Amino acid sequence: MIRVGIPRALLYYQYLPMWKTFFEELGAEVIVSPATTQTLLAAGSSRVVADTCLPAKVFMGHVLSLADKCDFIFIPAIRSLKSKSYNCSKFLGLPDMTRAVIPESPPILEIDIDINKGRRQLYQAIYKLGRRFTWNPFRVKRAATAAWQAHLSYRQLMSTQGLTPPQAIENISGTSVAEPRTPPDSTSPAQATIGLIGHAYLLYDEHINYQIVQRLQQSGNMVLTPEMLGRHELELAVARTVGTAYWTYEEDVVGAGSYYLHNSTDGVIGIMAFGCGPDSLMMDMIHRQANRLKTTPFMCLTLEEHTSEAGVITRLEAFLDMIYRRKRRREEVCV
Ligand code: SF4
Predict the structure, then answer these.
(1) pLDDT mean by block of 10 residues, the chain; 335 residues
(2) What DSSP element (H or E) covers 109?
(3) Packing angle of the helix pair 54-66, 94-101 (nearest 10 deg)
(4) 302 CA to middle of ligand 1, Å?
(5) CA-proximal residue: ligand 1, atom 8 (nearest)
(6) Domains (range + CATH), the chain
(7) Spatial contact of 266 and 177, defined as CB atoms under 8 Å apart
(8) The pTM is what?
């Protein structure tokens, strides 16, 4: 059986169920790299120039960890998923970048996804990828249809049950009973409702963000993330804020940020990577919107390889203290 490696980084959190279903339907075994560790990050970091963003360094570390464990490694080049919206250059050149910095990588299975070139080109790209496993186009079509269905079910699971991507993945694979939107002690009300915005690879990689989701939940807060919103809500929020989205994953930052600023969260935390061009623009829009609205506090945490855990915790605690004080004062006024 052909073994296909999928790095647990970058778009893994958005698309794992879809990719896994596609390859398994074509008879392959899918191997996912382990969770990020300091050793893995250091290995990835040593292969790229210093000013590469943290998520790309993490990605290279995951590719290295899979190098001797699979026959192929799956690395898509996603250029655009919607007409006239574009992805960050790292995603466009990911297969080439990987080949250049990790020559010992197993052969790369790549697919070029660019909706701007039309659906016909997309179908051809899917068939070209599937041809590595079978010459039967109907089998590829069946695998692609099952994969798309798996993706829709995954999105629906997160938005209807309030699950984060890691929880939904565990739920689908039957490895855990995921806890939905409630704080850890569900007998008492949440201390505060916090909207967490940013790319999935920053919000859910526990090593690089120092377990921010768990920390917030363990302090008794309810955490809402972009995946817990429906596509329609996110698109409306983007339209209200910027009109038409320019960046492919603008909904995770601008859409979710604007939605949570307007919809009764007690605070919004944005997480971005140091040196990220798209995020510096998108987070700034949300920051300005928060300043204009003056209703919901906003804080942006910037992560990089040398971000200290103590620094993240101190800022988080200070932000939460301010939110709790603000809430108490409001409740006193209402009484
Ligand atoms: S969007 Fe930003 S953080 Fe993500 S890969 Fe591109 S530069 Fe890195």
Answers:
(1) 95 95 96 96 94 94 95 94 86 94 95 90 94 94 97 93 92 65 55 94 95 93 93 90 86 93 92 92 94 94 90 95 89 66
(2) strand 108-109
(3) 60
(4) 12
(5) 53
(6) 3-156 (3.40.50.11890), 188-334 (3.40.50.11900)
(7) no
(8) 0.92
